């Protein structure tokens, strides 16, 4: 089985290559919990996959995206992201966030975004 560092890199590379949904299907647990900052968490792969679809469907153009840093500690990985996006409503934004991913048996069971 690949290491958590390898899986984390695989996910980040897939997002950068425009293959986020393919990576989501492969690397997220059926009962994944996803959370934005301190908001209420969203539970379940189907619900969170739809949220991913909704987000990417709202983007008109990705001007740039990069992983600035990443790390692994035990079964937790971290990735610091920056993205320059224009949304379909015309709003352009630079998004900076840290994704904290908790892994079990090669799948993400919890992902929380801090921004």
Write down the oligomeric state.
single chain
Q: Class by helix and strand content?
A: alpha+beta
Q: Unreliable segments (pLDDT under 50, ≥5 consecutive)?
A: none
Portion in strands:
over 45%
Q: What count of helical segments does DSSP give?
A: 3
Please tally the β strands and state the result.
6
H/E element order: HHEEHEEEE
Radius of gyration: 14 Å
Average pLDDT score: 97
Binned, the helix content reads 25-40%
Report, as a whole number of angstroms, the end-to-end distance.
Answer: 31 Å
**Strand order of the main beta sheet, please?**
2-1-6-5-4-3
Describe the main β-sheet briefly.
Answer: 6 strands, mixed
What overall geometry do the principal axes of the alpha carbons give?
Answer: globular
Short description:
The chain has 115 residues and is α+β, with helices and mostly antiparallel strands. The protein has helices at residues 4-16, 20-27, 45-57; strands spanning 28-36, 42-43, 59-73, 76-87, 92-104, 107-114. It has a six-stranded mixed β-sheet with strand order 2-1-6-5-4-3.
How does this model look, in words?
It contains 3 helices and 6 strands; from the N terminus they run ααββαββββ. It has 115 residues and is of the alpha+beta class. It has a 6-stranded mixed sheet. A hairpin with a 5-residue loop joins strand 1 and strand 2. The radius of gyration is 14 Å and the shape is globular.
């Amino acid at each position: 089985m690949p290491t958590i560092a390898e899986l984390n890199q695989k996910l980040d590379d897939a997002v950068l290559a425009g293959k986020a949904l393919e990576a989501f299907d492969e690397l997220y647990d059926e009962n994944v919990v996803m959370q934005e900052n301190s908001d209420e968490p969203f539970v379940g792969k189907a619900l969170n996959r739809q949220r991913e679809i909704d987000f990417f469907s709202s983007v008109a153009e990705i001007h740039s995206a990069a992983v600035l840093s990443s790390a692994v500690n035990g079964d937790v990985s971290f990735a610091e992201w920056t993205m320059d996006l224009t949304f379909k409503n015309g709003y352009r934004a630079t998004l900076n966030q840290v994704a904290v991913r908790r892994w079990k048996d090669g799948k993400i069971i919890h992902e929380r975004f801090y921004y």
